[in-house]
Structure formats: C-alpha cells, structure tokens
Prior knowledge:
Layout: H1 18-30, E1 37-41, H2 53-63, E2 66-70, E3 95-97
Parallel strand pairs: 1-2, 2-3
Amino acid sequence: GRRALRVIPSDANFLISIPALEQAIQEDRAAWCVPACVIATAGTTNTGAIDDMQAIAALCKREWIWFHVDGCIGALIKIAPVNRTMVDGIEDAESLALDPHK
C-alpha cells in the first residue's frame, strides 16, 4: 500500500530534490515515523534521469536509512569505459535492482 510511502518531489531535471528529501525525513521523524529507505534511480524509463547517488548515499548514511537504487535502465553504465561517473555512488547502495536484458 501507499500509506507509508512518501513521494519526494523532483527538481527541474527530474532528479530527487535533495532538500525536499531532507525535509521529508525530518518531518517524518518529528511525527514519530521511521524512514525505512530511500530509492534512487539510475536512469528512469521516461526521462533517463540519474539521481545524485553520491548525495543520497551520504544522506542515507548520515540518517541511518537503507539506500536502494533502481538501476534497471542505467546501472550497467558503471561498467562502461566512458560515462561511468554518471552513476557514481551506486556502489554505496545497500541494494540494487538490475535488468540485464535492458
């Protein structure tokens, strides 16, 4: 269900808004809710957007929150000789979804 799901706004480039994410975490904690995880994307289906995984990983580490990456579209960029830095921080995820056929 969506009762415990918190949707974080994106910025003009379709990336998770880090300030909005930080605010949501603080609001949840103030309401005695425990944030369980943050899900970043490594290449969204509609826009190809790649979240700032380094910033999200650092935030999750600081806040003791599970960091998951939906890498179904772009996670394999990490093994490419060029553009691999586009997904820097993916190695800090606690879990990763991957679709090798894409």
